[in-house]
TrEMBL record, chain A:
PANTHER family, sorted: CELL SHAPE-DETERMINING PROTEIN MREC (PTHR34138)
Region: Disordered, residue numbers: 282-309
Record's protein name: Cell shape-determining protein MreC
NCBIfam families: PRK13922.12-1
Rod shape-determining protein MreC beta-barrel core domain residues: 124-262
General function of this protein: Involved in formation and maintenance of cell shape.
Entry similarity comment: Belongs to the MreC family.
Gene that this sequence comes from: mreC
Keywords carried by this UniProt record: Cell shape, Membrane, Transmembrane, Transmembrane helix
UniProtKB/TrEMBL annotation, chain B:
Protein name, UniProt field: Rod shape-determining protein MreD
UniProt keyword annotations, A-Z: Membrane, Transmembrane, Transmembrane helix
Organism annotation: Gluconobacter cerevisiae
Transmembrane domains' residue ranges: 30-48, 76-93, 127-152, 158-177
Recorded superkingdom: Bacteria
Amino acid sequence: MLSIHARQVLAKAILPILILLAVGLVLLGLVRRPAVDGVRLMATDFMAPAYHGLVWPQGRVAVWLTDLRGATDLAKENARLRDENRALRHWYDVAVALAAENGRLKNSLHWIPQTVPQYVTGRVTRDDGGPYSRAVLLDVGSGHQVRIGDVALDAAGLLGRVTEVGPHTVRVLMINDDASRIPVTLASSHGDAIMAGDDTAAPRLIFYPQDHHPVEGERVETRGQSTMPAGLPVGTVHYSAPNRPVVVPDADLDRLDIVRVFDYGDDDSQAPDAPGRVRVKKLPQNPLTGPLPFSWLPNLPDMPGRGGQ
Amino acid sequence: MVAENSTPHLHSAVEPKQTFRRALDMSSRAAMPSLFIMFSAILLSAPFGIPGQAQLQFGIAMCTVWFWAHSRPRSMPALAVFLCGLVVEIFSFGPPGTVLLSLLVIYGVAHHWRYGLSRLGFLMGWLIFSIFAVIASFFQWALVCLHAVALLSPAPGLFQAALTIGIYPSLTALFVWGRRTFANPDQA
């Protein structure tokens, strides 16, 4: 048993010791952030079933509310759905015709088909943002093959990229996070740009060509780079202020539920070396022993392909 | 201690018999504030989609530690603050250690000034708490900027500070009631 004096000293010393430990955690977070985030991811993995249980009543209430709203206005809703169905049938016919034409054209061009990407579908376990970041955690189950850098999409468009991978859970950094930079292509003005998140609902467009300003309302797609394939729908251009183009994302970033994570594989389309830069094996200094029959020839080039060096 | 043992009839020489059940009841009542922080931190990490959920985690922890550290420090010892801070850290994704450090600092201030704070009244206590809430949010913003090596907008931090300051009166009302009833170990 400690004496009264020792207990008093301990009581006085405990707060400074705990503050020092907290400062240590702050420093650890600055130096080794992945280690701390790994612990957090493990806790989320552990809590994932409980989260589903917690939000289940909320989901049921939302479904009931939608049903109730539909039931109160059945005639109008039916008319709207009939119109929409008619329009969708038209677009279905157009899509089938275009797919057939596309197939014929690809066939005549000897088009090399792209590999089908692997994907997993997961439910958003939790919104993982905090005041300064925009990220979500997905429950993708055990035995998944998701890797860092994989692309996450919802039903409508690009959502973000995977930044951390746990045993059951992956963390997706959304396109409107402050740290997100995605290379994009503008569909009609054919300019390239970088889409930079700024913690608002609509990420900004930066580094676009000054002679090809983005056009209001044009489509924005991903530019093929590293593990990001080309042509994924991102959103549309909108000018929130003069000379400030932003992208209104197709994906519903505020209300995420089911998200697919695609693995497009490593980028193995390496450009060939430039003609003047071909590295060649060095020939042995003296491959042949004895006098050469053509040693009288002046200045033989000893290495082919060094023209550019 | 300031506010505890304030009810005179509890000072009577006749004390209830110390049984295991009573000890359990007393400790659960004493642990109520810490359990409240941990439970709300875990609950608010679920994907409800409520705006400002992450900011509420921080705000509830700050208000709870501030109130109990100056009004009944026996229900909120430094070690409990540390454990609560760790739980909030694990169930949030902000810059590591900032919530924990802010909680410990605000605990130190409230615990050190508890006699003065009890004389100052609610409004003055709220004002001092507000200053520390703004400082803690600013500290968090500075660390995020340091980590991102960029000057980020301080608006989310200001929102967090405003939310923390705004929920303090309603939480105080709950805690004042709890201090008399369900979180009062003397009533076990």
